[in-house]
Specification:
6 helices; globular
């Protein structure tokens, strides 16, 4: 079986410090990474960069993570890519709202990097499980 660390994770966040922190942690753990600053860039990377998983903020300029999730539900090629949502919003409400969008995990901001890495691994191992929550 292929090592999970050989997978590519797309990190989507308009805050460059958060994006770079996540990219650094993922690369340190052997993952390949792609980056996007907003939903529009995320969709382009999801179509062209072939990520194995998307780690995405919901509130971003130009195109939000919510809009990406809506677009994703109507595109079978995108729906196959597991998504973990990062959010500073009320995590219980976000979790309820995104479950219908077939999201693999929900992580509250501020986040613990160990929780992020565990959720990434869990979602790569079982991409169709829905709604893992991490504080």
């Amino acid at each position: 079986m292929e090592s999970l660390a050989q997978h590519c994770v797309l990190v989507v966040d308009d805050d460059s410090s958060i994006r770079l922190l996540l990219v650094s942690a993922l690369r340190h753990n052997g993952y390949r990474t792609l980056q996007a600053r907003n939903g529009r860039e995320a969709l382009a990377e999801m179509h062209g960069g072939h990520p194995d998983l998307v780690l995405m903020d919901l509130v971003m300029p130009e195109m939000s993570g919510w809009e990406v999730l809506r677009e994703r539900t109507s595109d079978p090629a995108l729906l196959r890519i597991p998504v973990i949502v990062l959010s500073a919003c009320n995590i219980r409400q976000v979790r309820a709202d995104v479950l219908e969008k077939r999201v693999c995990g929900v992580i509250a901001k501020p986040f613990d990097l160990d929780n992020v890495l565990t959720t990434v691994t869990d979602c790569l191992e079982n991409p169709h499980a829905s709604g893992r929550a991490a504080a």
